[in-house]
Amino acid sequence: MTRTLLTYDEVGVPIAIDDLIQMISPFDVPFQEHFGFTAMPEPKEIRYEWLEDELMALANRLNGAVTAVATTWILHSTAFAKAGDILRCGGEQVRVTTVVSATNLTVVRGYGGTVGVAHVDGASVDLMGPNLPEGQITERDTTARTIPFNVTQIFSDRLGVSRSTAEAKKYGITNLYDYHMAKKLKEQAILLERNLIYGRRLDDTVNRRRTMGGLNFYISTGVHAAGGAAIDYPMLVTVLRSAYDRGGRPDLLICSPRKKADIDLFNQSFLRVPPTEKTRSSIVDYIDTSFGRLSIMMNRYVRDTEIFIVQSEYIKLMTFTPWQKTLLAKTDDTDSGMLVGEFTMVIKNERAHIKIDNLAL
Prior knowledge:
Blueprint: E1 4-5, H1 30-35, E2 37-39, E3 47-49, E4 59-61, E5 72-74, E6 85-89, E7 92-99, E8 104-108, E9 124-130, E10 149-151, E11 153-162, H2 163-167, H3 176-198, E12 202-204, E13 209-211, H4 215-218, E14 223-225, H5 233-245, E15 252-255, H6 257-264, E16 286-289, E17 292-298, E18 307-310, E19 315-327, E20 334-347, E21 354-357
Parallel strand pairs: 1-11, 2-19, 14-21, 15-17
Antiparallel strand pairs: 3-10, 4-9, 5-8, 6-7, 6-9, 7-8, 11-20, 12-13, 15-18, 16-17, 18-21, 19-20
């Protein structure tokens, strides 16, 4: 139902006031401001797909400790190994004799002049390459491409302004209809911002309803439960290393104002202010680690118990229909209009991104 503004709803008694209207409601949308929007290429579709691929795994980890002489090893997966391969665990090399199952293989210990030693549970087992007689070649599997997708989401609202209301004098407003449409645009932009972060992808073809997936929907591999702990520098280094091990290099940290204040206090005890300095600052805009530099985006729509860390090059905001303000057919003594826009988001290589949840408040 279209909301119609009447003269009874408006304040406009001529008194001595400033004509400039001040609005205190927050309407910042930093995620949209940071990434901007790209027009969807033709032919446009409400379901937007992209191709992803990855290299075959070239390492795995022990699923249980092994002694210095054990020739049967249990791994989490043996998909990367073939008979005749050389594997390295710590300083020892072994040669695979048989891949027994999806998790078990047998090996010759202390291969190539190395010494057999005990290895702990979780130790990395790296593929060094095949070791076959001349003329023989190892045939390895390859990965299949995947086709992730997202759907577009429509954001819209209506507005009606009666003729009397539009013509009555209002302080600070030249065109009442345009003024309220501008407010609705900010409101819809906030709803779009929330969905870019927490939207759940839904494509209900029966009822013809759809909503796009946001960061929280797509990030599944790099989810780290903080267990109620406070965010600190060692925790960031740990999760960044895990993303690095998966091939990612995240560069943007997105957090709530409350968590931004916590990050500002990193290493506060090391700050020293000379007696002549009258300003004390503890504001963090970047965090440098061995796994790259993180810039920080403060976003009021991120929950206080969560932080997202993303690789910016893999995120793109797509415009199906840009924001449009359209006047509707006049059916009574009211000017009615509609605001509508349709958008989606591409989140490639979800393994490169990180979500930390269950943080301390």
